[in-house]
Amino acid sequence: MSLVAAPMAAVVDLATSAQLQQATMEVEEEAKAEQQQESYSSILLMKGVRHLSDSGITRLPDRYVLPAPDRPDAGAGHDGLATTTTSVVKVKLPVVDLARLRDPSQRAAVLQTLDAACRGYGFFQVVNHGVDGDVIAGMLDVARRFFELPLPERARYMSPDVRAAVRYGTSFNQAKDAVLCWRDFLKLACHPLRDVVASWPREPTDLRDVASRYAAASHGLFMELMEAALQALLGMAAAAGVLGELAAASSHMMTVNCYPACPQPELTLGMPAHSDYGLFTLVLQDHVEGLQVMHAGRWLTVDPIPGAFVVNVGDHLEILSNGAYKSVLHRVRVNSTRPRMSVASFHSLPAERVVGPAPELVDEAAGKPRRYMDTDFATFLAYLASADGKDKTFLQSRMLLHDHDHDHDHCAAASILRPSN
Q1: In what residue span(s) does the Fe2OG dioxygenase domain sit (predicted)?
Q2: What is the largest CA-CA distance in the chain?
């Protein structure tokens, strides 16, 4: 028996070895195929949402799908606060009429409207601003044409450096974001304008001229609005110091946003809930709605006024006002049929400038305690690199005393917050 069994065992061993080898090869081939698919998917994601939309996809890639509680139509925030509704609730923001502001006989009344808007909503719309219609239309047109350029032309401006004078990308930071946003963007440093324009994209050929004229107009409008806001908040005498600083040096970043039609808009956002780092943000948008503002625990969709600018208070202005003016959470919804374009201009003091509450607004003896720590851009960058962003907004990280209602709104979306780099 032993003389027969040995060869049979050898045959069995050889068969088993062959099977194992075949199985191993199959596993390796499957792994290789999965890696190739992942690599292909990564390439598609790196190309951005304009590419995905143009490719005709009918299902949202998994990297763009938000967890159920964070989706646009979710019924409540993470702490139980009702932050969204299943039906779109529109809001007509307070309107600041600059033609009336420039009229000495009407200025006081408009200052009251501006002051109330900054305290109550943190947002308002500006009409009769005097920015030429051709400048506005030209900016939106050249923005559309930039995102229609071949990907290699756009991709040459990709950069992981948040300080880069020009930066093209998708989402906020596609290399780090756990869930990607349905947005492509082009960011342009705008100060000092004459020094940075040469670094802006060469295509479309009129982009530098058109965008620089728009940037100059935006800065002029910002200065006029800051003068009015500081006059309402502090009085002209106290406001002169900050206005003088801004006239001498400032920071200005412009972000051109492209939100293509999305196959499953109910599963994602163009931008998640966030507040802006700066004094004022001026937003130019086309006729497609999508901007939403957090107010009294609800997401309200801004009903845009044709030709108007949407303006919102930034974190710096809330800190400077010692909490009187509100930097509120806002986000962008997308839709399945119409692309949307917007141009956001972020204005503030120079990056190295330390910002704190205005001394005129702090009086411990009078029951007006200091509510915020000082901050600067280095502090903001440290916050981005820390774990704090998972639990609270940047503004919350600078608070000494908390406004319960305002803080509650910020907490409701903190876990999906991603600062706009």
Answers
A1: 250-349
A2: 118
Backbone angles phi, psi at 77, to 5 degrees: -80, -175
C-beta separation of 243 from 297 below 8 A: no
CA 273/CA 414 separation, integer angstroms: 8
Phi-psi region of 296 (alpha: psi -120 to 50; beta: other; left: phi over 0): left
Q: Provide the b/e sequence for 181-207 (b: ≥16 CB within 10 Å).
A: bbbbbbbbbbbebeebbeebbeebeeb
Domain residues of the chain, as ranges? 67-416
Q: What angle do CA 334, 336, 342 make, to 5 degrees?
A: 35
CA 189 to CA 83: how far, in whole Å? 34
Lowest mean pLDDT among 33-42, 100-109, 192-201, 206-215: 33-42
Name every residue whose Cβ is closer than 8 Å to that of residue 9 and which is 6 or more positions away in sequence. none
Q: CB-side exposure of 10: number of CA atoms within 13 Å?
A: 6
Q: Are 171 and 177 in contact (CB under 8 A)?
A: yes
Question: pTM of the prediction?
Answer: 0.84
The fold of the 67-416 domain, in CATH, is: Jelly Rolls (2.60.120)
